[in-house]
Amino acid sequence: MLVNFKRVTTLVSFIRRCSTLSKSLPELTKDRYPNIKRGDYAELNQNHLDYFHGLLGQNRVLSDPSDCEMYNIDFIKGVRGYSQCVLKPQTTEEVSKILSFCNQHRLAVCPQGGNTGLVGGSVPVFDEIVLSTSLMNNIISIDNISGVVVCEAGCILESLDDVLREKGLMMPLDLGAKGSCNIGGNVSTNAGGLRLLRYGNLHGSVLGIEAVKANGDVIDCLSTLKKDNTGYHLKHLFIGSEGTLGIVTKVAVHGPSKPKSLNLALLGLHSFENILQTYERAKNDLSEILSSCEMMDERSLDVVTSHLKLKSPIGDFPFYMVVETSGSNEKHDEEKLNAFLEGVMSEGIVADGTVTNEPGKMRAIWDLRERITEGLLHDGYLFKYDISLPIKEFYSLVPKMKERLGSDASRVSGYGHIGDGNIHLNISVPEFSPDILKKVEPYVYELTSTYKGSISAEHGVGFRKPPYIHYSKSENAISLMKDLKKMMDPNGILNPYKVLPS
Ligand code: FAD
Ligand code: MLT
Ligand code: ZN
C-alpha cells in the first residue's frame, strides 16, 4: 500500500497563525549570538545550484529569499538563519545524492521536518542548505496484525494517526504540534509528548530506521521486528541525534491498538503538594488505564484563556491537572475513574473538577493544555526550558525564577508532563534582552544540575543548549559523542553548531 497525502492545511494555518504574531523578523542568529563563528564551509554558488536543479528540477529547489524565509525562522522566533537554498527531495536516493555532493563540496546542511522544534535545531544558524523532508510523505505499509506502520520521514504525525485510527490502531505519541511535526523530526528529537507515560519513548516504539549518512551512504535498519539482536542497535544513534549524525528517511513504528473507551478529567487544585498526591493516587487507582497525567499552573492556563480566548470549564485555582484514561471496557474504566475522583475530592486533595467522554468536550480540555505553547508567543519573547527533575522538586524552579527575575519577566509559568517528571519552565519578556538572558542562564542549568535533573527532557539540545550539555552529561560521555560525530560525519556538514559544544 502506498498512501500519499498532501501537506495538510493545518500545517499551513498553524504556522501562519503563529507567524502573524510578530510582524518584524527576529534578529539574525549571527548577530544575536556573535560568539558563534561560521565554520569553514563553502558558500553556495551557481554551480551548486545547477547540480541541485539537475537532480530535483526547478520546483524542488527554493532559492528566492522570500521563499526561503519560513525555513530560516524557528517556531518561537528566537533564531533566524539566512540560507539561500531549500532542497525538497522525494526519495532516499535523492537525499543520498544531495548529501554526497554537499560532503564533497563542504556545503553545510540543516535537516528540517515540520520546523516545530523548540531549541533552534531545525533552522540554519548561518547559510546552511535546508534539506526539507516535507515531500517524503508516503506511507509504505501498515500491518494490521502487528500494528507496525512503515513510512517516509516527512509524514505528518496527525495524518499518520488519522490513517492508523481507521484501522483500529494509533500512533504511540501525541503532542501539541501533531498537525505540523513530521515523524522524521519526532524520531530525530526523540519527542516525548502527552502519552509517554503510557507508551514509553521512541527508543521503544521505533522498530526500524533507514537513514542517510553525511557521505551519502544509506543505512538500512528498517526492521519491522520487535526482537532483533543482531549486532549493535544502530537505530538508537539516529533517535534523538537531531540531524547531526544522519538524515532519517524512513521509519517503522509500532502502533498500539486504539482504545475503545476514553475519559478525560480537568482538575483544579490548591497546591503543588496536592498535584503530587493526585498523581500518586492516579497511578495506584487507575493503574493500567492511566494514559496521560499533565499539570499546568494558573499563569499557564491564563495564557490560553487570555490570549486565545479559550474557556475553562472549572473555576480559578493555582494549579490544574489533566488526567486521561484509555482502555477497552467503558464500564470498568468509568467505575475506576469515578472511584478515583470521589476519593481525591472527598479527601480535599482536588478542589474541583470536570470529567467527560464526549469528543468535543475532551478536545476543548486538551486545547487548554496543548495550546499553551502557541499562546505564550503572544507574550513577546520567550526563554523556554524543558527540564526533568526528581518528582518532589518538579515545580521548584518556577518560584525560584519568579523571585530572581522580579519585574524583568512579565510571566514565569510552569506546565508539563508530571507523570514523566518533565516540566516546561517558560519566562516571558516583552523582547529579547541579553541582560535578562545572563540572569537566567546558566543559573537555570546550575539549579537543574543541583537537583540532579536533565537540562533537556524531550526537546533536545539544538542550537540553544550545546554550551550547557555538561550540566547533564559527563566529560567522557561528551567526548564519546564527539568521537561518534567525527566518525559518522568527518567534515561536520550535518547540522553544525547544534547539540555538541564546539
Ligand atoms: P523539526 O523542528 O523540523 O526538526 C527538529 C530537529 O530534528 C532538528 O534538529 C532537525 O534538524 C532534525 N530533523 C528533522 N527531521 C529530520 C530527519 N528526517 N532526519 C534527521 N534530522 C531531522 N516536543 C516534545 O518532545 N513533546 C511535546 O509535547 C511537544 N509539544 C510541542 C507542542 C508545540 C505546539 C510545538 C510547537 C512543539 C512541541 N514539541 C514537543 C517540539 C517539537 O514539536 C518536537 O521536537 C518535534 O518532534 C519536532 O518535529 P519536526 O518535524 O517539527 O522537526
Ligand atoms: C508541551 O508539552 O506542551 C511541549 O513540550 C511544548 C512546550 O514546551 O511548550
Ligand atoms: Zn512537553
TrEMBL record:
- Entries under InterPro entries matching the protein: FAD-bd_oxidored_4_C, FAD-bd_PCMH, FAD-bd_PCMH-like_sf, FAD-bd_PCMH_sub1, FAD-bd_PCMH_sub2, FAD-linked_Oxase-like_C, FAD-oxidored/transferase_4, Oxid_FAD_bind_N
Q: Where is this protein found?
A: Peroxisome
Q: What is its EC number?
A: 1.1.99.39
- Output the Pfam families linked to this UniProt entry: FAD-oxidase_C (PF02913), FAD_binding_4 (PF01565)
The record's annotation in PROSITE patterns points to: FAD_PCMH
Functionally, this protein is described as follows: Catalyzes the oxidation of D-2-hydroxyglutarate (D-2-HG) to alpha-ketoglutarate. Also catalyzes the oxidation of other D-2-hydroxyacids, such as D-malate (D-MAL) and D-lactate (D-LAC). Exhibits high activities towards D-2-HG and D-MAL but a very weak activity towards D-LAC.
Spell out the subunit comment.
Homodimer.
Q: What is this protein called?
A: D-2-hydroxyglutarate dehydrogenase, mitochondrial
Species for this entry: Pyrocoelia pectoralis
